[in-house]
Amino acid sequence: xxxxxxxxxxxAAIIERDGRFLxxxxxxxxxxxLNQPAGHLDPLETLEQAxxxxxxxxxxxxxxxxxxxxxxxxRYSSKRRGTDVTYLRFTFCGTAGKEYDQxxxxxxxxxxxxxxxxxxACQERHRSPIVLTCVDDYLAGKRTSLDLLHTHSSVFEGGxxxxxxxx
Length: 167
What we know:
The chain is 16% helix and 41% strand. It is an alpha+beta fold. The model is unreliable at 161-167 (pLDDT under 50). It is an enzyme of class 3 (hydrolase).
């Protein structure tokens, strides 16, 4: 059976407060990098649940998504590992709620609040080439209603199956 190519689905959060954006500094296989709170979509969750979970894990903040800023596709080539991965990223904007006293996810060194200009000044440290693009799209007012997203109930039924190619 031929291999079907699939991108890795990720979510990210744009959280602005007083002209500053919440970023994380994290240890990666390519060194210390900056990113929005972001991560992979897990089985049995909606995109909104995924971004809410990732923000809590990486920043210890509640997150309340209010809109979808955009859907982005990028490719990451690890020179060190010799691998190539394409990511399909759903970037949300919203507000941060309560901050909890809990450890941050493994590999997260700290959270930072940075201006757009500070983010632009350190692009060589960005985890993804679309970190700044997402901020710029947010600042340009790009927003789509969360009503656009629909998760069918089949996502939550019957547990996990590795043979679920539904088209």
